Amino acid sequence: MENRLLSQRLQNISFSQTIAMAAKARELKKRGYDIINLSLGEPDFSPPNFILNAAKKAIDEGYHYYTPVSGYLDLRKVICEKFYRDNHLKYTPSQIVVSTGAKQAIMNLLLSLLNKNDEVIIPAPYWVSYYQMVRLCESYPVVIPTTMENNFKIHPEQLERAITSKTKLFIFSTPCNPTGSIYSYQELKDLSNIFKKHPEVMILSDEIYEYISYSKEPVTSIAIFPDIYNQVITLNGISKAFSMTGWRIGYIGAPEWISKSCDKIQGQMTSCANSIAQRAAICALKSNPSEIEYMIKKFKKRRDLVLNMIKKIDGFQLNNKPDGAFYVFPKISFFFGKKLHGKIIKNADDFSELLLNKARVATVSGSAFGNDECLRISYASSEDKIIEAFKRIKKTLTLI
Ligand code: PMP
Ligand code: GLU
């Protein structure tokens, strides 16, 4: 009965599979099972002390009240400086909106732009919430598939073919969650040439993993191409780079008509992002990126470790080398149709479930990310845990 009362909008979407898997792992742990959690994209470091001290100071100095809806002016100024320093992007504080995590920033944008039945182009594999948030807005995700052979990136012709008169927005992440791929300067330039021909199509460039890059080339922001600057919303946040997932600070740089509309929505929804976290974000974003180099070095070591261990597991296929973020996305369809412990593995959901129940390792099925032949493994965990997890996975699968 109650379910029938729920909105159609809500019935269009499912629970977040990343969050659901993390909750399952947490629940099993609470019941005494020794679970290794490689499901959630959540760094295991403590945020740097200088940032924690800034938050303590903010409490002592009395930052307890609502802030301007789009965020403290001095924070927005620091964000402009950060965009210029790291991305060569010129924004003014009126083009910046600080939100309760990048998640709220995305939802602000979608609610600003989308009408029922509009189309949003999303290359797959995509981050789970893009698809579901678009559905929540009663719009259509138009998914462009990619292949591991092409490093999970789209060709400009694919983009061109996908654009219709109903296309409002294109959403992608670079570095990508879940594949770790990074679009090069030239690849983005080629895509920008397509967008240039369609000035009515907006682009959400999710750069939340910007600092978590192992490539020598810096991560390019698509907004640097002047012809399309006014079509781009550049998204970033402090969750991943500074290991501050619970602090909930994300931000956008965008054309002013977009930042104004996001401010309007946010003013009705949450008033503003948390005041203390905003003060801490000033300190984080002002700091030299070299301050967090130690975390990136660790992630790189873990990535190399994971790539090595994956090679040793028959049936896991990973031909590309992820250059950023902290995920690998191997193909595991080799196991489909095979029987383990009396159960046939039909798809990636079954496979991930099996790893949880038999190997006691939590991962996320590729179906969450629009590719149900793959599995997402997060290596935002200690080396010891990663080594133990792969030992368990290998042992479980040799029984097949
Ligand atoms: N974009 C991507 C690609 C992500 O992986 C995440 C995961 N947290 C987010 C956005 C949302 O980040 P936040 O914690 O800032 O809401
Ligand atoms: N973004 C992280 C992930 O993909 C955190 C969970 C979530 O927000 O979906 O695992």
Can you describe what's shown?
This protein is α/β, with parallel strands linked by helices. The chain folds into two domains: 2-46 and 292-398, Aspartate Aminotransferase, domain 1 (Alpha-Beta Complex); 49-288, 3-Layer(aba) Sandwich (Aspartate Aminotransferase, domain 2), CATH 3.40.640. The chain has 14 helices and 14 strands. The strands form four sheets. A seven-stranded mixed beta sheet has the order 2-8-7-6-5-3-4, with helices on both faces. The chain has a three-stranded antiparallel beta sheet with strand order 9-14-13. A two-stranded parallel sheet has the order 1-12. Helix 9 links the parallel strand 5 and strand 6. Helix 5 (73-87) packs parallel to helix 11 (275-286) and helix 6 packs parallel to helix 7 (128-136). The longest helix is centred in the last third of the chain and has 19 residues, at 293-311.
- Integer average pLDDT: 96
- CATH fold label of the largest domain: Aspartate Aminotransferase, domain 2
Pattern of helices and strands? HHHEHHEHEHEHEHEEEHHHEEEHEEEH
Number of helices: 14
Overall tally of domains: 2
Provide tags for this entry:
single chain; alpha/beta; Aspartate Aminotransferase, domain 1; Aspartate Aminotransferase, domain 2; 2 domains; seven-stranded mixed beta sheet; three-stranded antiparallel beta sheet; 14% strand; binds glutamic acid
In short, what is this structure?
This protein has 400 residues and is an alpha/beta fold. It has helices at residues 2-5, 8-11, 17-30, 49-60, 73-87, 101-113, 128-136, 156-162, 185-196, 256-269, 275-286, 293-311, 348-359, 383-398; strands at residues 36-37, 96-100, 119-123, 140-144, 167-173, 202-206, 232-237, 249-253, 327-328, 339-340, 343-344, 361-362, 364-365, 375-378. The protein has two domains: 2-46 and 292-398, Alpha-Beta Complex (Aspartate Aminotransferase, domain 1); 49-288, Type I PLP-dependent aspartate aminotransferase-like (Major domain) (Aspartate Aminotransferase, domain 2, 3-Layer(aba) Sandwich).
